Input
Amino acid sequence: GSELVECDDVLSGGGGAPLARIGEGDGGFGKTTVGLEAVRRARARGIRVLECRPAQSELKLTYSALADLLESVTPDELALLPPPQRRAVEVALLRVEAPGRMLDARIVATAILSLLRVLAGNDRLVLAVDDVQWLDAQSAKALEFAVRRLDRRLGLLATIRFAAESPIALVEDDVLRLRLDPLSLAAVHRLLSTRLHRSFSRLILVKIQL
Output
């Protein structure tokens, strides 16, 4: 669909395309399904994708979304950061014990910026966040700080509920918002067939669509 064409633009990163694509929809509108397909397409191109799916119940958990987003980051990759920044990321991700003093949010944000630059290298890096409105405050602030300062090697694909406000504030010229209409049963069938290489009955497709 047109939504996936728009997502492909952010994957390619060419032609001065907006940094972020934010798909807006409600439950049953297929926004998560579209997001998953965009992630699949990115990985099929050999693009590294960091993804997370924050939940409303985790809003008060410090750096919980960031920990999910960076779960695939290896110790060797973290070792490329300056020691103070590496330590801050390791503490935020609960990989090492926290010091007695409170973790400095600015150091964490700066460290995340450095880490994303390392992970992007000379290639393309995509952050995929489903239901971005449920990002915990600390994760949102760190990601906003980093995303605002990265070049076009980085792409952001996010989904958000209708009428919800994104906790990551970006320059409007860098953002393209897509209103996602409900996926038809045929569209759900095509996406699932492509991803899972199997077919489903109409009854199951209806349940998935809901």
